[in-house]
Amino acid sequence: MSVTTHHPQYEAHIDQWEMVEDCVLGEFAVKSRRGRYLPIPNRVDKSIENKERYNAYLHRAVFYNVTGRTLTGLTGQVFRKLQRRRFLLRLNLWMIMLMAQALV
Asked: Which residue in 13, 28, 65, 90 is deepest, having the highest Cβ count within 10 Å?
């Protein structure tokens, strides 16, 4: 049995989530969505030349992946070794206190 209905808030925000996900994934994901992020300048013209011009335009476009780099940096800050050192220091102090209590 599959779920066929979505919550209204899910429907309201899914486009934003997909955009953020594409930005995190980088230039290839953004460019693969083609017209969603880089609209065709002349939509009326359906000629082959216009399609080739758009493909060249898309190829020249630059997407600097600030979002992905920010996510990587923030994830790195969460898991940096400083917290581990503090934890190990506190663990050692706790073990010393337990051993001292055992000797009393």
From this structure: 65
Q: Is the residue at 55 inside a domain?
A: yes
Q: What is the pLDDT of residues 46-66, one digit of tens each?
A: 899 999 999 999 999 998 888
The answer to whether the predicted template modeling score (pTM) of the entire model surpasses 0.70 is no
Contact assessment for residue 50 and residue 11, using Cβ atoms and an 8 Å cutoff: no
Long-range contact set of residues 28-36: C-beta below 8 Å, sequence gap at least 24 = 30/63, 31/58, 31/61, 31/63, 34/58
Residue 30 lies in a domain: yes
Tell me the residue ranges of DSSP E strands in 1-104.
Answer: none
Return the residue matching tokens 């190990």: 88
- The whole domain housing 32 covers 1-64
